[in-house]
Amino acid sequence: MPVVNGWKLSDKPLWALGTKQSWGWSWRLVQASQPRDLPGVERVWLEVDPEYLPDREALEEWAMDSVCEATDGCRVEPDGICPHGHPSWLLVLGYI
Question: Which helix H or strand E contains 64, and what residues bound it?
Answer without folding.
Answer: helix 56-64
